[in-house]
Write a structure and sequence with these properties.
alpha/beta, globular, 2 domains, single chain, Rossmann fold
């Protein structure tokens, strides 16, 4: 591919993908690569979508498919049709997909069926929990992609074990690029701690959104009981799915749990880096906790980010009330924090590799 004439279509649709797309878009611009951003509309609330474009310097999408919510099959099907139309319209040399959402899989499948190369950023990750839709999205995308960008050697080794014979490049984690790039801006512009009357190191930050947690009444009830036992204030930016389930099930949210609307990337970074503890079922927030040296309790039985557990900074507590409460009382804070997410230059490496593909 010729650098100045390379045209990339970047597929995004959910909060983590906006964060990953920002440093990569900047790297593309510096190299003269044309970046066509197509938003599936998977996340469509302002607090889950537009605020990230505003804060991260991403240009407005060339096209928003406006898919919105729906069942996995219906949503993915609408995305597949929409991305097919977008690829035919813009005729990219390669389609770049990030992570493991329905948007990821739909864009990859649309490209494959049209004979367009697919590059998958965050390839090779596995939780080995086949009940998670994200696990299937990861595996299927990896096996149809032409170029794979892995955050670490473990992910590349997993692809080899599965017989994936396309190029798998270990580039580091692009969310770490974003964390390094935007840290100073978050510190200087975010007022979220003052607005919420929080003191650094005196509160915990929680997120809860996975269907396996919030769509099961007994499990969601157990998680809320555990969180209400926190010995410190606990802030919970509420994903729209969680808000809907709380209303449907008539579940009570009370102190020390403080429910707030979703916040932008810069506010979320400030909440993360100043927390004494992170409690989450999000893959991205597990990493961000590690970036900022904050202990993490993961409300799942497994994780695709196994190294965060192996280093002692992340503890898998599932929905076990006793383990969650014990973890809140005595968060782990190991003496060492190895550099497991690369050197902060993943975006540049991906752009250069695409130019040479």
């Amino acid at each position: 591919m010729v650098g100045a004439r390379l045209r990339v279509l970047t597929a995004v649709g959910a909060r983590p993908q906006f964060i990953k797309a920002a440093p990569l878009h900047a790297a593309f611009v510096r190299r003269g690569i044309e970046d066509i951003i197509v938003h599936s509309g998977q996340h469509y609330d302002h607090g889950m979508s537009q605020v990230f474009f505003d804060e991260l310097g991403l240009p407005e999408p060339h096209l928003n498919l406006g898919v919105g919510a729906g069942s996995h099959g219906a949503q993915t099907g609408r995305m597949l049709a929409g991305y097919e139309t977008a690829i035919e319209r813009y005729a990219p040399d390669v389609v770049v997909v990030h992570g493991d959402t329905n948007s990821t899989l739909a864009a990859a499948l649309a490209a494959v069926k049209l004979g367009i190369k697919v590059a998958h950023n965050e390839a090779g990750l596995r939780s080995f929990d086949r009940s998670m839709p994200e696990e299937h999205n990861r595996v299927l995308t990896d096996h149809c992609a032409d170029v794979l960008f892995c955050p670490n050697e473990l992910a590349a080794a997993q692809l080899r074990r599965e017989g994936v014979d396309r190029p798998a490049h270990v580039v580091g984690d692009i969310m770490y690029d974003a964390a390094l790039h935007f840290a100073a801006r978050a510190a200087s512009t975010s007022t979220v701690l003052a607005r919420l009357q929080l003191s650094p190191g005196a509160y915990a930050l929680a997120t809860l959104h996975r269907a396996g947690n919030v769509d099961q009444p007994e499990r969601l009830g157990a998680l809320l009981r555990a969180l209400r036992a926190a010995p410190f204030p606990l802030v919970l930016p509420a994903h729209p799915r969680l808000q809907a389930r709380l209303r449907e099930q008539g579940l009570e949210v009370r102190a020390p749990l403080q429910l707030i609307e979703p916040v932008g990337y810069l506010d979320m970074m400030q909440l993360t880096r100043n927390a004494r503890l992170i409690i989450t079922d999000s893959g991205g927030l597990q990493k961000e906790a590690y970036f900022h040296a904050v202990p993490c309790l993961t409300l799942r039985a497994e994780t695709e980010w196994t190294q965060t557990v192996e280093t002692g900074w992340n503890c898998l507590v599932d929905a076990d009330e006793a383990r969650i409460q014990a973890g809140m009382r005595e968060p782990q804070r190991p003496a060492e924090r190895p550099a497991i997410f690369g050197d902060g230059h993943a975006a540049e490496k991906i752009a250069d590799l695409l130019l040479g593909a």
